[in-house]
Amino acid sequence: MDFTTATIHLLKLLADFAGNYGIAIILLTLVVRLAMWPLNVHQQRSMKMMQNLQPKLKAIQDRYKNDPQKMQQKMMEFYKEHDFNPMGGCLPLLIQMPIFILLYSALMSPQFIQMAGDTSFGFVKRLDTTLRATAGISNDGVMGASKNDTFILGKTATVYLPNNQVLENVKIEKPAKALEIQGDLIPGENIDFKVSLDHLDLKFSQLDQIQKADITITDMNTKESEKVSFVRKADLLTASVPSVEVKQTFHWDVLVLIVLFGLTMFLSQKVMMATQKQPEGSMDPTQQAIQKSMGTFMPIMIIGTFVIIPIPAGVLLYLVTSNLVQIIQTVMVNKQIDMEQERTKNIATDSEVANAKKIQQKD
Fold first, then answer.
1. SS3 for 362?
2. Alpha-carbon span 353 to 356, nearest angstrom
3. How far apart (Å, rounded) are the C-alpha atoms in residues 303 and 198?
4. What pTM was computed for the model?
5. 130 in Cβ contact with 251 (< 8 Å)
6. What three-state secondary structure class fits 147?
7. Cα(109)–Cα(152) distance, rounded to whole angstroms?
8. How far is CA 311 from CA 20, 108, 122, 125, 348, in A?
9. Any idea what DSSP says for residue 283?
10. Angle at the Cα of 336 (from 274 to 349), degrees rounded to 5?
């Protein structure tokens, strides 16, 4: 079982529990964020430590500004002395990237499209749709298609042999490459498909007896799936499927999710920066200007990227939920760290007072 299939199975389990795939994606987000909670706490502690060390780091930079090599050496020594890893904050992001890619692959896969691609959630009409996509009606016997669409087979087939013998769930090897179109694809006319018998995972003696097979075909552009009956011709399975031309549609519900992602990301960065305020003059002005610009323009840049790159609504739902959890976590963890620092400060103050009293008594 590959990772994409495993992700789809996990989503199905969560959907069976919650009753909806949209809620399943939110639950998956919560599971991921909770699993990463210790790492994120460590990240925020590192940021707090960086905040406390910033004045000393700036002093090193000012002292060795004319000797970059010496500056780098002294900063590495300073990090080692304080047991601080400046790259430690990147670990949660590195872990989240594979999860994002897996979820993207799962929601764009034919398996999910066939199983729950047309699932709605709230104002989102389809979890697998992107900002600009064509919409086809699955299992109506007619394939909605555009001129440059690509098609893929399902992972299994129902195969019919002589004497009414039926083989269910016959595995198809390399389903992404098994399907071919005969001739040109002209929307509105029948699409002629062919599949080599060699792509069916059967014994040679069974391959020789195949009469026909039912296989699901998915249009990767429209997300439409049709169960197609193939008949045997020589060493091929062939089918002719009626088609109708479909045009690209702009999905406003996906645009809303993209905007929500940008807003929650902006708010998350604002909350993060509010808890990392540096003492006046402790940060290099150029670095401070860059940090402020990044916090403002990064969400805008990502929104622009998501408008261009087709991101499924389900993945955007995951990202929005993740940002909201990040905001809550940042506030909670930083309050906890501030309380710990306050207690440490009070203990240190009480200790100093006690030592001062002891000295007075001796005098």
1. helix
2. 5
3. 45
4. 0.68
5. yes
6. coil
7. 10
8. 20, 9, 18, 15, 52
9. S
10. 100
Q: How many residues does the chain have?
A: 363
Q: Which two tokens stand for residue 262?
A: 């940008």
Cα–Cα dist 190/324, whole Å: 48
DSSP 338-351: HHHHHHHHHHHHHH
Tokens read off for 271:
């909350």
Structure tokens that stand for 363 in this block: 């005098």
- Tens-level pLDDT at each residue, the chain (363 residues): 577 788 888 888 999 999 899 999 999 889 888 888 887 777 777 777 777 777 777 788 788 778 888 888 888 887 777 666 666 556 666 777 787 788 778 877 777 776 776 788 989 988 888 887 766 677 888 998 888 888 999 889 999 999 999 999 999 998 888 999 998 899 899 999 999 999 999 998 899 899 999 999 988 877 788 999 999 998 999 999 999 988 777 888 999 999 999 899 888 888 877 655 554 544 555 555 555 555 566 667 777 777 777 788 888 999 899 899 988 888 888 887 777 767 777 666 656 656 666 666 665
Quote the CA–CA distance of 229 and 242 in Å, as a whole number.
Answer: 12
